[in-house]
Each structure stands twice: as structure tokens, then as C-alpha cells.
Amino acid sequence: MGKKPQIAVLLANTGTPDDPSPEAVRRYLRDYLKDRRIVEMPPFIWLPILYGSVLRKRPAKSAAKYRQIWTPEGSPLVVHARKIAESLNERMEASDLPVRVEYSMCYGNPSLDAQIRKIVAEGIEKLFILPLFPQYSPQTVGSVMDTVGKTYRTLRNIPATRTVKRFCDRGDWVQAMAQHVRNYWAEHGDPWSEAGKLIFSFHGVPEECVKEKGDTYQQECIDSSKAIAAALNLTPEQWETDFQSKFGPHEWLQPYTIERAKTLGSEGLNRLDIVCPSFTCDCLETNEEVDLGIRKVYEEANPTGHFHYIPCLNSTPGAIDFYERLIRDELQGWL
Question: CATH assignment of 7-167+317-330?
Fold first, then answer.
């Protein structure tokens, strides 16, 4: 029997609809796309577009995509987050640490707001918020901290709070990612044996966020790719860094993964492997956009080619080992 929890670790991710119906997807998209961290257009311009067009057309299309990846246990993002929390709680109890791990979503359930309120109501006064985003961006980590701030403004008893801004600069994350890729290649063969290539595909953001507003996200993605490639002993010709998930009419960070997959396929590249180091858990953007959508684009450009999507760390033993080390490091002085 472990000690009574005195510290809570709250994993935080972006979110997912409660189910793959158009109605649930509309609720999720409404909350997600209303966040000014996500869409930085002035509300008087964006909200009429959101309610007048986007929320009328996109929910049905997105719901169809969610249905392709939905599991009997629910949304992949929630399933993986739950398993991470459960595995970490087993580690904490085995070590007799007074720590409980919960998971939450900025948009969707269980909500970050509700989880914080539950933790405070139980009398836990030390809280470590762990955004599950290796690189920092205002749209991810910034949004998590906005939500925390909004909740705290309504609470009288605020817990002592710690967080991390990023963890892509930790050597053990780089090694965990590299070993994860090695494990995949050990089972499926590596791309070089088939004259192939590895793409590190990161979630994109509008170019203006970097060029005009000075965000460091693009450089952190590039540095992450370089570090993982070095740990894998790759040559520059064996890999590249691209960006996915473009939304709206504006230019986003480039090269676009989908365009590079089509080009490489049309050039006759025999094998294309893609791994997504900005995602800790598989979700719509990895399982549907990459493993289904970009796979189709590549295979249509090269019908004899071989496409491999390397899953996220998810709740693999290597991921749990990394999160346990990170938590122990960040809780020094509390334990």
C-alpha cells in the first residue's frame, strides 16, 4: 500500500471529442478554435467565420476521420494518456512515493479545469503540471498554462505549482525517441536496407508565429530532429524535417510533410518512414493524417513503394521510464 498522495502530477494534452459523432466533434472544435492561442485573428473577424462556416462544414468531415481511428476503448489520445497515468501510478506506488498521477485535456474530457478542482478538493497542496508536448509553442504549452491560470483565478486555495516549458532539450528524451525508432526498425527493418528515408514530421504553425512574433518552436523542432538523428547515427541524406496539419489559407511552416511525401514517392523513393516527435501520444494528426492520409499520397505517387509510420512513444516502457525520471527530477525538494 503506497503512502497517501500529498503531490499530484497532472498530465495535460490538447484534447479530443468525447465520441466520433458530428455533434461531439462540433463541441470540441468550438472550444478548440475559439482559443485565441490557436487562432490569433481578432475575434470580430474570426468568430463569424468560425460559427458561420467552419462549425457548419467541418464537424461532419472531421467526425468521419475520427471514426476511422476510434478504438473500442475510445479516442486514441485518451486511451494512451490514461495508460501513461496508470503505469506511472504503478511506479509511484511501487516506490512508496506520495504521488498520484492524473491525465487531462485542455479541450474535452477529463478537462484540465475539472481535474485541478478535484485535486484541490481532496486537499492535495502540491501540483506538478506536465504538458505532454516536447517542444514549446504558445498553441500547446501556452494554452495549458492559460487554462491553469483561468482555473486558479476562481479558487481561494491554490496549490503550490510547478511545470515544465519543454523537455525536448533533455538528453533522456532524445535517447528514448532514438531507442523507440530502433525498436521499430528491429521489428520492421530499417529504411536504408530498402533505399529509403526518414522524415521527422512536426505539427505545423503559421509562419508568422516564427517570422513576425519570434516563437522558438521551429528551431526547437529542427534541434529535436538533429539530436535524434545524431543518436541514431544518421547521415544528413537519410533524414529531413517537415511540418504537417496545416489549417486555413495562410502559409505555415514548411516543407509540408504531405508535399514531400508526394515528391519523394514520384521520384521513386522505395521506402518512406515517418515519425512525429512533437506528439507524445497517437491521435487524429498521426493515426489519420499521417498513417492513413499521407500514406495514401505516397503510395499513389509510388505504387511499389513501402510506407512505414512509426507510432508515438505512447505508453511504451521507454516512455514510462522517461516520464518517471522527469517527474522525479522536477519533484526534487518535494519528495
Answer: 3.40.50.1400
